[in-house]
Amino acid sequence: MTASHSPFARKLGAFVALSDRELIALDGLHTRRKVFPSGRDMIHEGQTNHSAYIVASGWASSYKILSDGSRQIVDFQIPGDFLGLRSVLCRTADHNIEPVTTLEASEVLASDLLDTFTDMPRVATAVLWAASRDEAMVVEHLVGVGRRDAKVRIVHFLLELKSRLKLVGMATSAGYDCPLSQNLVADALGLSTVHVNRVLRELREDGLLTFRHGHVEIHDLDGLIAMSNFDRTYLDEEGPMLI
Amino acid sequence: MTASHSPFARKLGAFVALSDRELIALDGLHTRRKVFPSGRDMIHEGQTNHSAYIVASGWASSYKILSDGSRQIVDFQIPGDFLGLRSVLCRTADHNIEPVTTLEASEVLASDLLDTFTDMPRVATAVLWAASRDEAMVVEHLVGVGRRDAKVRIVHFLLELKSRLKLVGMATSAGYDCPLSQNLVADALGLSTVHVNRVLRELREDGLLTFRHGHVEIHDLDGLIAMSNFDRTYLDEEGPMLI
């Protein structure tokens, strides 16, 4: 697989129709490939002088630990996503990043990004779009934790993952592989593991979806969209805006 | 006041030491100045083909209305901030924006941004930094609503505003003008207005701060930072990273 067909290129290609020259520039961001084991922090809060990464394969979680020891998972990262971009730009990491599975990622220095933007301003716009989309997801996450009930929150979360994975060719409308434990889902959504377990059983009994053994199977997409009021426009899936 | 001394230039200047040429390019983003009255949406959720704006003076709030009619304020915008940048890049507005006071702002089209990035790649990096900082604030906001008690949440919020306003020359360590009603603060922090009122009275009686008549007066900054565990590194105030 060349970088021009990488999940990152597929994702940016959803916003900017990339030229051959731009695809080659993206190749240049994929030279320093590293592998990280699951369950050990790659980046920790307060760290400075670290790199950003683009995920090639595997899943990661970003989270914060509060002074009372409680954990808030901010988001999960999948192939094509940046890890730690915000922290590189803001110098000091404001959160921890831990691989959920074995993770393969390309190291990107702030100077690489600046060089790429200098050569390819359309790539800068595409990266800004990707960052804006990440912010839109955190906003939805805030609204979920602040205002949505547990069932709607879980369905919204699983539909959002489906849309994100579909963009990089890792999901269909029928479902997707998902390595997240119920414990991780609970800590992302501000719920208890018992509560997540009960809601997933209800969704299965209602014939809406089954999340079991690392796989989400969608039985009734329209039903899920209707009950969660899921509006995927914030994920912006209508094809390239910049031609 | 020229744009080169605009709040926007001051803010980007915190990340990139801007050259004269870059300051002139920022001037180019300030040609279409508009005034919006308070209390009426400038941008509403689901709207397409709208512009983004850079705030010159005044305050705005961005918020979402849920299907049950409840409101979640996502953030407030102050001079130097973008309004609706994410929505322009993602085509469809995913939230509403309403001026809190009379608001003066410069209209910015997506094509203006792309043109500026093409001429000035360092400006692209600075705008990406500003977007990343906004995301960091939404993350803190998520952590606050998910995990912090009411008093810590309110103090954190008021200290964050102080840091943001200071960056654009509108606050000192002694305090700042703040046009937000207790009702707006409550809807941003997921609290009741009665609760916000009670906490503000406690903070005043404890000799920590007074928020009254549109002004926040800080009596004991160290005490506030200690009790809220406020860590301003996520606001990245150490001076330009790109020289």
UniProtKB/TrEMBL annotation, chains A, B:
The keyword Ion transport does not apply. Residues 14-89 form the Cyclic nucleotide-binding domain. Keywords: DNA-binding, Kinase, Transcription, Transcription regulation, Transferase. One of its GO terms (molecular function) is DNA binding. Pfam families: cNMP_binding (PF00027), HTH_Crp_2 (PF13545). Transmembrane segments: none annotated. The keyword Transmembrane does not apply. One of its GO terms (biological process) is regulation of DNA-templated transcription. Residues 148-222 form the HTH crp-type domain. This is cAMP-binding domain of CRP or a regulatory subunit of cAMP-dependent protein kinases. The lineage of its organism: Bacteria, Pseudomonadati, Pseudomonadota, Alphaproteobacteria, Rhodobacterales.
